[in-house]
Design a protein that fits this description.
The chain is an alpha/beta fold. It has nine helices and twelve strands. The strands form two sheets. An eight-stranded mixed sheet has the order 5-4-3-2-1-10-11-12, with helices on both faces. A four-stranded antiparallel sheet has the order 6-7-9-8, with helices on one face. Helix 4 packs across helix 5 and helix 6 packs across helix 7.
């Protein structure tokens, strides 16, 4: 993709969304997932970092729009650290909605607001080793502590898909016993509290900033609620553009208005939007 050319969405709704963003960028919200969208997927989630072009592109775009938000399943502070978002000129008003919106970091204050952990998290954490042992321990399976959630990764197992499929049922039962739900992703099963998802977080933030158009970019099953939120906003008269990063999740790609190969192309889109939005603003001056 040409870094400075905004690609055309494949759907009429997506074209309307893009047109609305470019017509009034200062009334638009740009919201993005982190892993797989701004950062390449890696075997060890602790080694994930924002693509080299992502932060400069965000910093160029942010002053042109109403707001930029990162909406992620990671703890907000972890996303900020791995993304390198703190203290970046141009990202003075960036918001990171972590744990699917349960946590919030604002660049303006540099602080994280978070609820107390759900009591079921401690119970699940205590029982999880026994559940994994009972089901074969699946060599290579790795548990990630996320504070407000616990995630079981199978990407490094000898047969990642078989491990994922075998553990999904038992982990769903474990979560249900303690008032939690399981959020499946690409070779990861996350046990977390119910009632909060990216769709809820995105809708609330759209209303908070008064956005009259919205772009959302994601790459995994956890982004489907955000897609649903944009589709609902469209039905209420708020144009939106749905972007899919990567091709690994057909449920997402089938609903996207614009499909990109991965974080490098997402960064290119952001840079192109920054250039086009800047030109639009100068044209109205």
């Amino acid at each position: 993709m040409d870094t400075f050319a905004v690609p055309e969405p494949s759907t009429p709704a997506g074209r309307d969304g893009l047109a609305a963003i470019l017509a009034e960028p200062r009334r638009s919200l740009v919201a993005l997932d982190f892993d797989g969208t701004l950062a390449d997927i890696v075997a060890d989630p602790e080694q994930a970092r924002a693509h080299a072009d992502a932060v400069p592109a965000l910093a160029a775009l942010a002053p042109q729009v109403a707001a930029v938000a990162i909406v992620t399943g990671r703890p907000a502070s972890v996303a900020v650290r791995y993304g390198g978002f703190a203290g970046v000129p141009g990202l003075d008003h960036l918001t990171v909605l972590g744990h699917y919106g349960a946590e919030r970091w604002d660049a303006a204050t540099g602080t994280v607001r978070a609820p107390d952990p759900h009591p079921g998290i401690d119970a699940v954490r205590a029982e999880l080793p026994g559940v994994l042992d009972t089901h074969g321990a699946w060599r290579g399976t790795w548990v990630e502590e996320k504070g407000q959630a616990v995630a079981v990764h199978t990407r490094r197992a000898s047969d990642p898909q078989a491990a994922f499929d075998a553990l999904r049922g038992p982990l769903t039962e474990l979560a249900a016993r303690h008032g939690l739900i399981v959020e499946p992703g690409r070779m990861v099963l996350e046990l977390r509290p119910p009632g909060v998802d990216k769709g809820v977080a995105l809708t609330e933030f759209v209303h908070e900033v008064g956005a009259t158009s919205v772009l959302y970019a994601g790459d995994d099953l956890g982004d489907l609620p955000a897609y649903g939120a944009v589709e609902k906003l469209r039905s209420e008269g708020v144009p939106g553009l749905l972007v899919c990063s990567g091709t690994a999740v057909p449920e997402l790609g089938g609903r996207a208005d614009l499909r990109l190969a991965g974080p490098a192309e997402v960064a290119g889109l952001l840079r192109a939007l920054a250039t086009a939005s800047g030109a639009s603003s100068h044209g109205r001056a």
